[in-house]
Write a structure and sequence with these properties.
The complex is a heterodimer of chains A (419) and B (457). Chain A has helices at residues 2-7, 116-122, 174-190, 199-208, 210-214, 219-230, 242-255, 271-276, 302-309, 326-335, 340-347, 349-354, 400-409; strands at 21-29, 38-45, 48-53, 61-64, 69-72, 74-79, 125-130, 142-147, 156-165, 234-239, 258-263, 281-283, 313-315, 371-374, 385-390, 393-394. Chain A has 419 residues and is α/β, with parallel strands linked by helices. In chain A, strands 1, 2, 3, 4, 5, 14, 15 and 16 form an eight-stranded mixed beta sheet that branches. Chain A has an eight-stranded mixed beta sheet with strand order 6-7-8-9-10-11-12-13. Chain A starts with a helix and ends in a 10-residue tail after the last helix. In chain B, helix 8 (297-302) links the parallel strand 11 (284-289) and strand 12 (306-309). Chain B is α/β, with parallel strands linked by helices. The model of chain B is unreliable at 1-17 (pLDDT under 50). Classes of the chains: A alpha/beta (419), B alpha/beta (457).
């Protein structure tokens, strides 16, 4: 049961796609690895990359990518794609649970027909992590991974990470949050396989641990906690203040957590400690505003500083819907000192590696064929993709937005409703 | 006799109120600077490659190839392979009224206690030590317009500010710039007041609210004008109508002394707002946000109304759902290019890179089939917002005689990699990326490390 939840990697293969191979010729390829770009060909069969080479490759379908740039599909690590349609309409949001905390999975709520999917896909995002709402709880629900292929049976992986938040509170103390985090982890650490044998056993364990009962934990929540310690489930903690980051590093060491920091606007002050402990960091490269007293050291050069310290960096975008703007964020990170290759990795392979997403995020033999052919420099926000492949499928790039544009630049003398 | 004193007293008040909170702005000491061989986007639709620009005494003196000047005091800046634009202007900012840190105690942008608060002035809320101004300056912002929020039908007066941080708001105010009146359509007012069980709770309630207020303003203005028309003898015995701060603002709109800026997303609401303006005979300067402006782009062009828009924001509200990335381009190109498009930020991060937002909007427009040059698109963040703030005669484009508000960019301002290297306000250097010269707000001093300023890049 526990293992199933953690390891259920759903990856349907498009059967018809096996019939012919596609070769993408002559593009400038960024593999998502820490290496220089090169001009080469990419051979795809079905959903898989057969070969990436500087030599000329042959295939049934030839796609000319000369003078274009090819990257792995962008993987957005901090989104609510599929569980949010309109911010101000709570009925269109599915990011919160009243009953469950750590055991809350958003996976079943994902709407593959959400307009956010074609929109972000048409801007080069091929997959995403979708996260439950942050509620200032030190531990809350679980994030899922999904491909932006719009498949009605969602292609993805449920529950790839647990989430939580530590920092300034309008009432109460961050000390309380940190103590609660320690207590919950302490509870998780004393659980063994016998405790997890059945829901009844789990309920007994909850009764035996006062804070677990006080928090009204459900068996599902306990399973998530157990996975956190025993199955290396990544824990995304949204936090900003340097001193909070250090406390979280202490807790990571104590319990062997697979910690991922998010926001982390004061990370530059403790970059060496973060690097020494191999903690990936998701940052918003635009955010140099000292929005709160937790982020006074926020700085536009954060991406460059963290990269220099040897930290695996990923990008987020603070506004909803346009998660693809992490590309523009990456461009700004480069303009402020980050390496270009590092910025491409931040958009692709760093996310796949940090969240254990197999076979994605890199353009290499044997990887799934999620890739984007860009009309120009992908880090320029005025560049658009010319083609987007997900699992080897050449995706349609139309969106509700492109349809409305066509309708309103059509100058025929007709009501728009008849165009 | 007593009445006479009353009259004199009230006249004094009237005169005082006219000049209240007047700008005391003084530019920094300007230099004579010759930029050599720069690529210039002048804000008038021209791209001038390898061209020189001479500024001095706070003004633009000349643009042209091979300007030679026999003056040992002139500072030469080699602008080869660099780009020069007018100072960037943001027509929709909440810096100062929603400063950083965004704590409740300094969150002063929205007097959301009544649907009509035309009496409040944004400048009375502005915190001059907001660390956000300096960050915006590093993005080339030389002038910005601060508006009250959008909770109310009439949110109050907005103010145009020079991005030269000083310790009084009067010393930052753009001299003689008109105030704006902030109005708001749609979801925000009806949500804020509807949730309290009071009017407006619907869009039709919004419109009733606008019209009721304008009727009162008309009556007030009629009374003021009737009093003005009286003879001196009559004025000796009759007191003037009692001053009303709210109606002062609204009647100033009717007298064309205040510019109307309206937060409005939906096409049909903008069309209705245009009719309200016609009903009460005032002019709308700009619709802000206008996610659906593209649906009525011709109507906006026909009425000389600017669309102050985002490049790509959408989805946070139902009225912001029909986003098209070509929105700005469609508004710009309406009626064969007679449209007025503005890229605005409404955001403390966006204001730092309005050039990138313009780049996205231009790219989306050209993808949709237009052929919009950089020289045209730069107007969206320079001359067009200057027009919408009523300061175009003085700034917003690089024309001899205008204020020398100038940005020197490290490269093409439509590239994500280009940064503002030097920013001049009224011919005075306000920021130099290479030397680290620039403003540091009191907030930033020693707050993380007592020996240093908060952000030191």
């Amino acid at each position: 049961m526990i293992k199933i939840i953690n390891c259920l990697a759903v990856s349907f293969i498009s059967i018809s796609a096996f019939s012919q191979t596609i070769v993408i010729k002559g593009g400038e390829i960024y593999t998502g690895l820490n290496q220089e770009s090169f001009i080469g060909d990419i051979l795809i069969e079905g959903n898989t990359i057969l070969e990436v080479s500087t030599k000329s490759l042959k295939g049934d379908v030839v796609v000319d990518a000369s003078n274009k740039i090819i990257t792995p599909g962008v993987i957005a690590p901090d989104t609510q794609i599929g569980i949010l349609e309109i911010g101000a309409i709570s009925e269109t949001r599915d990011g919160d649970s009243n009953i469950y905390s750590m055991g809350f999975s958003v996976y079943d709520a994902i709407n593959p027909n959400s307009t956010l999917i074609p929109w972000n896909r048409s801007n080069g995002v091929t997959s995403a992590i979708t996260l439950p709402d942050f509620n200032w709880d030190p531990l809350s629900g679980m994030a899922s991974f999904l491909l932006l292929d719009g498949s009605l049976r969602v292609n993805g992986m449920p529950d790839v990470a647990l989430t939580g938040e530590i920092g300034a509170l309008s009432s109460g103390s961050r000390a309380e949050s940190l103590i609660l985090l320690r207590d919950l982890l302490e509870f998780a650490s004393i659980l063994d396989e016998k405790d997890m044998a059945s829901s009844k056993k789990i309920s007994e364990a909850i009764e035996d641990f006062e804070i677990a009962e006080l928090m009204d934990l459900q068996p599902r929540d306990v399973i998530a906690l157990y996975n956190l310690l025993n199955n290396n489930l990544p824990l995304i903690i949204k936090t900003n203040r340097a001193s909070d980051i250090l406390k979280l590093i202490d807790i990571k060491k104590l319990y062997g957590l697979n910690l991922v920091l998010m926001s982390a606007q004061e990370a530059t002050l403790v970059a060496n400690e973060i690097a020494e402990n191999n903690i990936p960091v998701i940052i918003n490269p635009f955010d140099n505003i000292p929005d709160s007293f937790d982020e006074l050291a926020s700085n536009i050069r954060i991406a460059a500083s963290l990269e220099k310290a040897g930290i695996k960096v990923m990008f987020s975008e603070s506004r909803t819907h346009n998660y693809h703007l992490i590309r523009q964020g990456a461009g700004n990170a480069v303009a402020n000192g980050m390496s270009y290759t590092g910025a491409i990795m931040a958009l692709t392979s760093n996310v796949a590696e940090s969240f254990n997403i197999p076979e994605r995020g890199r353009l290499q033999q044997g990887m799934k064929a999620d890739l984007v052919i860009w009309e120009g420099d992908p880090l320029e926000p005025s560049t658009f993709p010319s083609k987007v492949y997900i699992n080897g499928n050449d995706m349609d790039l139309s969106t509700r937005s492109s349809r409305l544009t066509e309708r309103y630049i059509d100058k025929r003398d007709l009501p728009n409703t008849y165009k | 006799m007593k009445k006479f004193f009353l009259l004199v007293f009230s006249l004094i008040i009237a005169v005082d109120s006219f000049s209240a909170f007047e700008s005391t702005y003084k530019p920094l000491e300007s230099e004579k600077v010759l930029f050599i061989n720069g690529n210039i986007l002048d804000g008038e639709g021209n791209e001038l490659l390898d061209t020189d620009l001479l500024i001095g005494n706070g003004k633009i003196i000349a643009l042209g190839k091979g300007i030679s000047i026999d003056d040992k005091d002139v500072k030469i800046i080699d602008a080869k392979n660099k780009w020069i634009t007018p100072g960037i202007i943001d027509i929709h900012s909440h810096m100062g009224v929603y400063p950083a840190p965004s704590v409740r105690t300094s969150s002063d942008g929205n007097e959301a206690t009544s649907p009509v608060t035309a009496e409040v002035w944004a400048e009375h809320s502005m915190w001059v030590q907001d660390p956000q101004y300096a960050l915006a300056l590093k993005g080339g912002i030389t002038t910005f317009h601060v508006l009250p929020g959008s909770a109310n039908l009439f949110g109050g007066r907005g103010v145009t500010v020079k991005n030269l941080q000083r310790n009084t708001i009067q010393s930052m105010k753009y001299p003689d710039a008109k105030h704006s009146l902030k109005m708001a359509c749609g979801e925000n007012p009806k949500r804020v007041y509807g949730n309290r069980g009071q009017a407006p709770s619907t869009r039709m309630g919004n419109f009733a609210g606008y019209r009721k207020a304008w009727i009162e303003a008309e009556n007030y203005l009629n009374k003021l004008e009737a009093y003005d028309a009286k003879s001196d003898e009559e004025k000796m015995v009759e007191s003037p109508p009692k001053r009303d701060l709210q109606l002062d603002t609204l009647s100033d709109v009717l007298k064309d002394e205040i510019l109307v800026h309206i937060h409005c997303y939906r096409a049909e609401e903008m069309a209705l707002m245009i009719d309200v303006a016609k009903e009460f005979n005032y002019k709308i300067t700009a619709f802000h946000h206008g996610v659906e402006a593209y649906k009525i782009a011709d109507l906006l062009a026909d009425n000389g109304i600017c669309g102050a828009l985002w490049a790509d924001w959408w989805g946070f509200k139902h009225e912001a759902y029909d986003m098209v990335q070509a929105n700005i381009a469609i508004v710009d190109q309406a009626r064969d290019g007679k449209g007025c498009a503005i890229v605005h930020s409404d955001d403390e991060r966006g204001i730092q890179r309005l050039n990138q937002e313009a780049a996205k909007a231009r790219a989306a427009g050209n993808k949709a089939g237009y052929d919009i040059s950089k020289a045209r698109a730069i107007n969206w963040i320079t001359s067009n917002p200057a027009k919408a703030a009523g300061i175009y005669d003085e700034t917003g484009s690089l024309v001899a005689g205008k204020n020398a508000d100038v940005v020197l960019w490290s490269g093409d301002p439509f590239s994500v990699y280009s940064l503002a290297e030097q920013v001049f306000i009224d011919g005075a250097l306000a920021f130099n990326r290479n030397t680290g010269f620039g403003p540091v707000s009191d907030f930033d001093v020693g707050i993380v490390d007592p020996r240093e300023d908060r952000v030191n890049d």
